Amino acid sequence: MQFNGIFADEYLGIYMKILIFDSEVQNYHFICGILEDYDVRYEVIGPFTMVEQCRDYLLRHKDIDIIITDVMLGNDMIFDILSIVPSYVPIIFITSHEEFALRAFEYYSLSYLVKPVDEPTLVKALSKAVRLRKVSPLLTPQGSWSNSGEEHPRLVVKTFNGERVIHISTIRYVVSEQKNTYIKLLDGNSYRVDKTLDEMVAQLSEERFKKVNRKYIVPLEQVLGTERRENGKMRILLKGKNFPDIIVSRTRKREVCEWLKLE
């Protein structure tokens, strides 16, 4: 199936966190199956089958991009908790209850789909949701972090086509080259930011990111291992292929090993 929206080239590499509220688990698997067919980076959280589960999650997490929900979870209606959801988060309703469509649009509903829903209809709704999140009010000035929650903060960088929101979970490493700072992503893209390496590391989580030498910042989850080098130095190995030669000096080795929990 060809698709001209969320999965077009301009959207590749965009990372979306999608919540699914549905007491019918088969609907959850149907949605996940559609997402798996396309080249878009996403994380699905769910299924949440009870309203109280949804409430607890929404109260503890703000880093949400899209919500897909039924109107009824068991015997309870979902509307009571949707006021918790930030206004910039698009909500896609998928339900058997036609009669609640008008009420749904009071809660920033982007699409109201009546079951059974076919694949093209759901893909179209997801396309609209991704486009909306791409230009949402969450965008902040160039090179600044959004306040969307500490687990998945975002960085906005300028591109030739405008702006792009980068989730820190998609960063492979940050490098200083020829007095410029670049963010290298897992999808192979690279973006220059108007910050020094020290300014970048000051805004990143100390537990998740480390400036390991004068040139590189690496995320903990991308470190595959280390290699010993001459004169007490150490080389950091990253996951994947074609990673740069990242050498840690003898004087900084102990600090980096403690961060990696190697000693």
Description:
- A 5-stranded parallel sheet has the order 2-1-3-6-7. A 5-stranded antiparallel sheet has the order 12-11-10-14-13, covered by helices on one side.
- The protein has 263 residues and is an alpha/beta fold.
- It is 23% helix and 32% strand.
- It contains 6 helices and 17 strands.
Question: Main attributes?
Answer:
5-stranded parallel beta sheet; 5-stranded antiparallel beta sheet; elongated; 263 residues
Task: Give a concise summary.
With 263 residues, the protein is an alpha/beta fold.
Topology of helices and strands:
Elements: E1 15-21, H1 25-36, E2 41-48, H2 51-60, E3 66-69, E4 72-73, E5 76-77, E6 91-95, H3 101-104, E7 109-114, H4 119-134, E8 154-159, E9 162-167, E10 171-177, E11 180-185, E12 190-193, H5 197-203, E13 209-211, E14 216-219, E15 223-228, E16 234-238, E17 246-248, H6 250-260
Parallel strand pairs: 1-2, 1-3, 3-6, 6-7
Antiparallel strand pairs: 4-5, 8-9, 10-11, 10-14, 11-12, 13-14, 15-16, 16-17
